Amino acid sequence: MWSNKYRQARVVSWTLSAILLLSFAPLATAQQATSPKYQVNEVFFGTGGVDTCEGVNPAENDYCALMTAGELTIGNTKSDQYQAYGGFNTTRQPSLEVAVLKSDVDMGLIKPDTTGVGTAEFQVKAYLASGYNIQIAGTPPMNGTRSVAAMGTRGVSQKGVEQFGMNLTQNTFIAGSANPSQDPDNTFAFGFANNDTATGMVYNVADEFRYVNGDIIARSESSTSYTKYTISYIMNVSSVTPGGSYKTSHTVVAMAKY
Amino acid sequence: MKLHRTLVQRPLVALTALALVAGSAVPSMLLSTAGAAGAQMLNRQIQVSDSSPSGNANFTTGIGSGTNVEYKINFTSSSPATIGGIVVDICSNTPIVGDSTCLAPGGFDWSATPSVSVNGATLGGTWTAASAVGGGTGVYPVLKLSNATPVAPTGLVTLTVTGVTNPTQNVAVTGQSYYARITTFATSADMDTAYPATNDTRASMATLETNNLVDYGGVALSTTTPITVTAKVMETMMLCTSGTVMAATGCTDASTPSVNIGEDYNGTKVLRDDAISTASAWSMISTNASTGYGIWIRGRNTCPEGGMTKVASTNVCEIPAAHSGAGVAGPLVIGRTTGNAAFGMRVEDGAFVGTGIGTNTAVEKWTGDDTINGTIIANTSNYLMDTTSGNDNINYVYGSQVVDSTGQANSVQNEYFFAATASPTTPAGIYTQTFSLIASGRF
Asked: Which residues of B touch A27 (CB under 8 A)?
């Protein structure tokens, strides 16, 4: 009996402490979403909830909990000037996640009467951002100081003409090529292959390829869940392309906009 | 049981009441607090020249190495106030300014002496860059810029930092997020108080405010595994010969390189002692040899005269090489005049056919050109059949070089002009000489 009362008293005390944390915690995190016109903070209108995760270091085997006793609204709402995520169990930390899922592209032996092809894959997710741009960085494949001619203007693959290009769409002759895919679906993820005709940075046309170091090849105009992109590479050689092994390293550089 | 229920129920009621109070009271408190904390920067973005993690054994320099990376940091101040200190602090766990925890990403380094340029159009004055240790010995994740005379930004501020080392790869994941906290201060002294050089603990928002924090903002970044693209191209060489001139690329219209030399006589060709007869053969070459190629000619007949023979086994060439096989071209003279039969050749520069590529140059002695007072003058009447020049004659094991190029070729054609004359005493018969053309590329 005594032990039961003691346990219950501890439960009560813990809950009250959590409430105090609720009221004070936002003050320690004064950095909230703002725009030139107004500011939205992590306020909660509902029947209750607890955030015990502030200051907890998972690396030290601490534990914490996010609990809610009912939310009036959840999900993302936005306009041109602002955005907010409703719900108690949101995080105030912006994030940008980029992962290369398939990084080795071997286009094999290429002759003037063949086309070398290959694919790479990467995925991107951005939270609490106004979108992102993905740049491709790196040279065309090189053999010593000799590089394969890059397709500076979008065009089709031509056997016998020295070319190196890429796109981010499904092609008719490249196995494994694919359009960007949204995870879990296109109501949560919004990334797309760049289609900026004004600058020529167009990477969403099937069977047409381009490569310019530093081009923006993909983007999103808002926070987004995972979008998986498949890069399709092509390489053609002419009869005078020097023999040897050609190699390059590309990185996909993500820039989130805040 | 009853007591238990009462004790459990009561806190829920209290919880609800307190939550409502907190919910209604907090906004006004937060608004006032936010005003004193400075304003959040707008248009925050960091562009990097390479997102590869450092420490990659396959790439130690350039794209893929994550070293010597350039960071371009953009932001727009929300406050019109002047600033004398700017901090860009890199953390692996959170971009939230004011959070006391900031773990330095392993391997990230602005360098002990960072190189920073500031676009003077929107942020004037003289800015001095320094870095502070923030995560352990030898690691400098805190970039600090100071200006003794505070200035007010007038637009998008751009800081370009070179020579940066990206975080190393966490091998458990294929990508890795990390963060930048950007803060500005009224003076560099304020900045140094808030970010002392040797204190690893990041200042709370209260401390930043006390030290005249002006603007703040966070940015998320990510490293990624580099994509490696490889391909192989074979070295190529193709040389063909033809008895007729070729018009198509790739030797597709080459004919049997059998050349009949002589004057027409009743439907056949015969050499005469009162005429110089000519005939041609052609070669076409295609190669991707990166630094060029050469073509050599070697004769089959082993006779010392080096010309055409009626019976090869006799090792006698009754129609000998022109000019006794000397390595200098000269005009062929009809045999009736000289009393000697002669056989010679000359070569012209090559050019591509159709959609081919490239040219080549005939070796000077085989062109037949005259050199008069140091000036080369073309002369299509001169021929030679070099059998004497050391290591460069048609009987040498590798033959005599007739053509050279420093570049690649696609369907480059050369014409070989043969000339012969009989003497009054040249025995009747069928005379032959066979040549092998040898191409060698410099890859």
From this structure: 26, 29-30, 33
Interface mutation target, options B3, B232, B442, chain A, most CBs of A under 10 Å: B232
**Amino acid at the residue A78:** K
Which one has a higher pLDDT value, B315 or B404?
A: B404
* B60 secondary structure, DSSP code: S
Preferred mutation among B63, B222, B287 to probe A, highest tally of A CBs within 10 A: B222
**CB proximity list for A60: less than 8 A, separation 6 or greater:** none
Q: Considering the entire predicted model, what is its pTM? A: 0.75
Instruction: Give pLDDT, residue A130.
Output: 86
**Which pLDDT score is estimated for B314?**
80
- Is the Cβ–Cβ distance between B414 and B283 less than 8 Å? yes
**pLDDT (0 to 100) of residue A72:** 52
- Structure tokens, B74: 């953009």
Hey, how many other C-beta atoms are within 10 angstroms of the C-beta on B282? 20
Q: What is the pLDDT of residues A63-76, one digit of tens each?
A: 555 555 555 555 55
- What are the structure tokens assigned to A237, written together? 């050689």
CA–CA gap between residue B64 and residue B345 (Å, rounded): 57
CB–CB of A233 and B31 under 8 A? no
Question: Which two tokens mark A188?
Answer: 């949560």
* CA gap B281, B407 in Å, rounded: 23
So what's the pLDDT on residue A28? 32
3-class SS at B41? coil
Classified as helix, coil or strand, B103 is coil
- Asked if residues B173 and B201 have their Cβ atoms less than 8 Å apart, the reply is no
**Partners of residue A118 on adjacent β-strands:** A233
Nearest to B230 among A107, A254, A255 (CB): A107
| H/E run at residue B288 | none
The answer to whether residues A168 and A161 touch, using CB atoms and an 8 Å cutoff, is no
Alpha helices (runs of H) in B317-423, residue ranges in sequence order:
335-338, 364-367
Distance CA B430, CA B443 (A): 42
| 8 Å CB contact between A137 and A214 | yes
**Which stretches of chain A drop beneath a pLDDT of 50?**
1-32, 45, 57-62
Neighbours of B297 (CB within 10 A): 23
pLDDT at A38: 52
Per-residue model confidence as pLDDT tens digits over A111-170? 999 999 999 999 999 987 889 999 999 999 999 999 999 999 999 999 999 999 999 999
Q: What's residue B230's pLDDT?
A: 96
pLDDT average, residue stretch B290-308? 93
The DSSP annotation for A37-51 comes to S-EE-----BS-EEE
Which residues from chain B sit within 8 angstroms of residue A241, using beta carbons? Answer: 233, 288
A22: which chain B residues are within 8 Å (Cβ-Cβ)?
18-19, 22
Average pLDDT over every residue of B85-101: 89
Beta bridge partners of B372: B375
CA distance A7 to A22: 23
Residues of A in contact with B178 (CB under 8 A): none
> B250 CB contacts (<8 Å, ≥6 apart)?
B238, B286, B411
Task: Provide the shortest C-alpha distance from residue B66 to chain A (in Å).
Answer: 10
